């Protein structure tokens, strides 16, 4: 397995990552493998993907044909007036359901023209795209329905006034179909979250300007775009590092959690590599820039994300398929109907039967079949901490072969806690040792020091008051209380022979009193309570769980053994990306679950990307599903919800489209020889009934919390 600079999660690094005072952690220099491997991504530069047009890929995530909410709300009053002034399938209902006065049909027609141009525009644009791609679907079917009903109605109203002969118009059907379709698309937009922009979130990590150190010590603020390789920049405490580089002067701890998901800041000193976008937490650093522009770490990650997003989705859109079949069936049936009725009867009969066929083909129920289920599913999911951005996700999840899981922050808490304290001196109690540890660490703000303080506070133990506390360079801390001296150092800094059982790969530190070891503190990450259950449920569903982590081999193996799963250690963003790509090329459906920027490219590439909500914004932006409670068990709940949602969508498609498949041939007059003709009125009633069944079926969807 490769080792590289992306791996800041390594447990061996934690042994060198205690406090700004705990310099005992960094006894070996990571620079060689850090710097060498940072370059390792550059051969795989995806810059040439920048020109990709992502519209096709992202079309299912965003409707590019206008804001359906705005169009629906403006169209609603116009459509209702048209429906009020027009008879339903030729039936003149009593007031207040229908209102007729002289020239009311002219007024209804005039409003319909506005409605067709404004409300129909997104469907017509969508139909043009579908027909250009030679894949007619829902947009083409809806456009056919509204166009035929509208244009025939124009013809019917004009003929009525020109010849005095009565022709039935379909303005009611036109307006109702258009409003239902706009409502369906709005419901779906409302249900699905707006997908975030991962690239925007990446850009926010870098400061706009950098403090450039010039000759003679002069400092000048310049835009980061002007930085060149070998420039020296100053990074003050609390600032984000402006570019990838090597530390020339200074020592600090650098928080790379936004980049890696790792909660423990890493101690960095002269010669160490720092990543642009990470946060300098402690003291001023002088950094020599080694990477800029497209070669920088964040640009490499950005290119991987862009590359992933440019690849087409493998999701099957069943609704689109069904709509495509209906489109061809309706056209074929209408054409056959026209020819047959023209030969058997006359032109009027031929036109009426073919028009009725095309209008009955319009999928009122089909238009709501999917949006109503999605709306119900996303609302149930959000209440239970599962946010879904993309409806295709449900379909793909039900077919998943593999789930790739990040370790730190995903399967584990990502928080260092005191796991165990071993006493080495029988004359001292555990409370006394904890009190000493609390006292010596009380001056530190480092997360590991804080975990010791929290541990003591939870046990309601008071801190021992120290006379003085000093930082021992390269070792740890020392302090004195009266005549007694104490040291709290890393196990590597302790030169005496000592046997410590450490089966779980914890970070180990030793407490000494007057040069004698009196206690051993084991700190480490721990599995989330729902991780075991998740793995069990994935295996039960026949989905293969694999852990991919930036941590070292030893730390990865311990967690993998606990969970009894396959694992890959020392994984950089590119490694994880290649892992997902490898499985996808084998024809497998891949779910990826992670929380850091190093997970973002693989989250975007995976068929379904699942982001842990407590992770980074970039990971969240790159994912299809977000677990707001950061509980891995919620992925099992989501998979269960996906199966149920998919089943409801298919049931609704059968109800919504089944009516159409039966009604279209009957409307075309196939049963006319037997005296059975589907009148427009009966067709309308069946259409409404189908829509009600679809709505009620969607409401029966529920979710079982794992």
Automatic annotation (TrEMBL):
SUPFAM superfamilies: Calcium ATPase, transduction domain A (SSF81653), Calcium ATPase, transmembrane domain M (SSF81665), HAD-like (SSF56784). Keywords: ATP-binding, Cell membrane, Hydrolase, Membrane, Metal-binding, Nucleotide-binding, Translocase, Transmembrane, Transmembrane helix. The chain crosses the membrane at residues 71-95, 101-119, 140-162, 174-193, 322-344, 350-374, 653-676, 682-704. It is a multi-pass membrane protein. InterPro entries: ATPase_P-typ_cyto_dom_N, ATPase_P-typ_P_site, ATPase_P-typ_TM_dom_sf, ATPase_P-typ_transduc_dom_A_sf, ATPase_P-type_domA, HAD-like_sf, HAD_sf, P-typ_ATPase_IB. Residues 23-63 are annotated as: Disordered. GO terms for biological process: copper ion homeostasis. It is found in: Cell membrane. It comes from the Bacteria. GO terms for cellular component: plasma membrane. Residues 23-58 have a biased composition (Basic and acidic residues). GO terms for molecular function: ATP binding; ATP hydrolysis activity; copper ion binding; P-type divalent copper transporter activity. Pfam families: E1-E2_ATPase, Hydrolase. Residues 205-305 form the P-type ATPase A domain. It is an enzyme of class 3 (hydrolase). PROSITE patterns: ATPASE_E1_E2. Its EC number is 3.6.3.-. NCBIfam families: ATPase-IB1_Cu, ATPase-IB_hvy, ATPase_P-type. Belongs to the cation transport ATPase (P-type) (TC 3.A.3) family. Type IB subfamily. This is Copper-translocating P-type ATPase.
